[in-house]
Amino acid sequence: MKKNLLVLALAATTFSGAAMAWTANGHGGSMEFGGTLTPKEMGNPWESKVGDNVTELNGSLKSGEKKVEIILTKAIPVLSIRTAEKAAFMGGAGITPQINFNGLIDTARIIAGRTVLQANVMNADNPAEKIGTLNSVLSTAGFLTRATSEGESSYFSLSASLPAHAFFGGVSTVTKNTAPNAQQLITMIFPEALENIDYQTSSPSAPSDLKGEVELNNPLHSFSAAYAAGIERGNAISIALDAPATSNLKWKASLPVTVSYQ
């Protein structure tokens, strides 16, 4: 701050020197400082990615049956949010990610980072026709590193019970039900999410993961974080048809998800 004031004073002296004049028997006077102050908007430090469409989820059932299970041979990524650069950002207003799965999951019922996913199944040849219900297990995890102005670093497996908390709407609202190892779970469902993590310490494995809620509005703290949601390899997608199948059915289910910042 002192350096900025010094520069300002020197600038004022330099620019006003041409008009400055000496006054005989002078009694002082008044000078003014002025200029334009332009607020610098803080950029949003995040980027997000929605998983690619998956269209080869084929299953078989006998004529007249209403239920089928499809076992996944690989994970299905659904959503990821991560810091856009491999560098921590300073806290501030308007940058806290919020996630809305539009009723597909209940974050209050997440256990160890996993919860029931339910969506309508539609006729792919007639998208307005509902033909059944999809059920599966959605895995979700938020991982965050935080460094204070005193140089203390912490790692978090995130929960979020209020919109002020990072990744609210996408992780458990109950801290004890948070994924026990967020990095491990993210790696299984959306490994790209961790590529830009800044561990803010010389040893990424040094601090133990804490479970908890974190606000991002403290300008004296720096943060780096990642979020992922997806269905793990080996899990089943179950489809319960509204009516027994009598012929081949092409199906589809939409998983709408909205990301916002506050």
Mean pLDDT over the full residue set: 86
Biggest sheet descriptor = 11 strands, mixed
Poorly predicted runs are 1-18
Secondary-structure element string: HEEEEEEEEHEEEEE
Q: Could you tell me the strand content as a percent range?
A: 25-35%
Question: Which class do the helix and strand fractions yield?
Answer: mainly beta
* Strand elements, count: 13
- Please state the overall shape, judged from the principal axes of the Cα atoms: elongated
Distance between the termini: 30 Å
Number of helices: 2
Characteristic terms for this protein:
262 residues, 13 strands, mainly beta, elongated
Secondary structure elements and pairings:
Blueprint: H1 2-16, E1 46-50, E2 67-71, E3 76-83, E4 89-90, E5 97-100, E6 114-123, E7 126-147, E8 153-158, H2 182-189, E9 209-212, E10 222-231, E11 236-241, E12 251-252, E13 258-261
Parallel strand pairs: 8-9
Antiparallel strand pairs: 1-3, 2-11, 3-10, 4-10, 5-13, 6-7, 6-12, 7-8, 7-10, 7-11
TL;DR of this structure?
The chain is mainly beta and 262 residues long. The protein has helices spanning 2-16, 182-189; strands spanning 46-50, 67-71, 76-83, 89-90, 97-100, 114-123, 126-147, 153-158, 209-212, 222-231, 236-241, 251-252, 258-261.
